[in-house]
Amino acid sequence: MVGPSPGATPPQAHGHGAPGGPQPIDGVRHVIAIASNKGGVGKSTVATNLAVALAKDGAAVGLIDADITGPNLPTMFGLPAGFQANSEQGLHPIQRYGVKLISIGFLLPPGSPVVWRGPMIGSGVKQLLRDVAWGELDYLLLDMPPGTSDAAMSAAQDVPIAGAIIVSTPQPVALEDAAKAIAMFEKLTVPVLGIVENMSYFITPDTGQRVEIFGHGGAEAAAEDHAVDFLGAIPLATEIRAGGDEGRPLVEFLPDGAVAAAFRDIAGRVAAKADVLARMAPPQAPIHTPAHARPAPGQPPAGPAPSSERSII
Ligand SMILES: Nc1ncnc2c1ncn2[C@@H]1O[C@H](COP(=O)(O)OP(=O)(O)OP(=O)(O)O)[C@@H](O)[C@H]1O
Ligand SMILES: [Mg+2]
Questions:
Q1: Which of 99, 110, 169, 190 could covalently link to 161 via disulfide, CB atoms 3.0 to 4.6 Å apart?
Q2: pTM of the model
Q3: Cα–ligand 1 centroid distance for 296 (angstroms)
Q4: 190: helix, coil or strand?
Q5: How far is the CA of 174 from the centre of ligand 1 (A)?
Q6: Which pLDDT tens digit goes with each residue over 208-223?
Q7: Residues 31-283, CATH architecture
């Protein structure tokens, strides 16, 4: 069961509530980032299916497409690009498959690039977190862009993140990047909930043979090396890819198969871990701020760079 439990922890009991540090979003219990350093390993696919799995289990779930320059969630949820471009309400979340979803892709006609510098991207992510009426949520998932980036830093400095899920494929070049993502979240004092191995294996449709295209067990070994949990393996499967392209998340449309069960298991582990971490919230862990970015003694913290203040909402 991943939904809210009676007597569950108060909203965002995770640490980092110190004045000037990350501040909880009213009504939002757990903010969870889905990340990797490498592109194309399945972050958005995992975020989509975990969000739907959590919602199907009764939780109130929000999902932010924090990939400001490469938003894919509208497509993965079957929403046409740019459908809010002329909306008088501006950008706002849409309820789809039980998930409250927001993406800058709702504003962009197909093919329109977002050409923004890093600080603007950070500011955009903050707006998606803060300037949206999320209401009561058990989980607010963040689908992060690839890289150890402005989006992750801004999010971690703005809200207490309950934990990060690192997605990797099994081969060493992907795991090298996953290790960097783990290191980044450690620097940001965000707990790593664990690693998901995506595209872990392929079952041939004709013979049922298991083929490990990208090698075997890499993410599990990496999880052990980095002393983080292994959350589970998702196969390489045509129906996952097709579900993403057609806006039909597998967990919603093929809920009875083994692949959906794999996503649901991971969702259950993530929910349980986030809840446990919230109950053991450390005393106000400060967010790591690089020395050059700290204010001089007696000086107020620097405000946001003016160039970053482009409103997307
Ligand atoms: N387990 C899987 N089986 C089959 N196809 C998959 C699987 N996971 C992801 N894909 C497909 O791989 C492509 C990349 O996945 P996705 O967009 O989720 O990756 P990403 O890490 O979010 O990429 P980016 O770094 O660009 O944000 C998509 O076409 C998706 O449908
Ligand atoms: Mg993505």
A1: 190
A2: 0.87
A3: 44
A4: coil
A5: 13
A6: 999 999 998 899 999 9
A7: 3-Layer(aba) Sandwich (3.40)
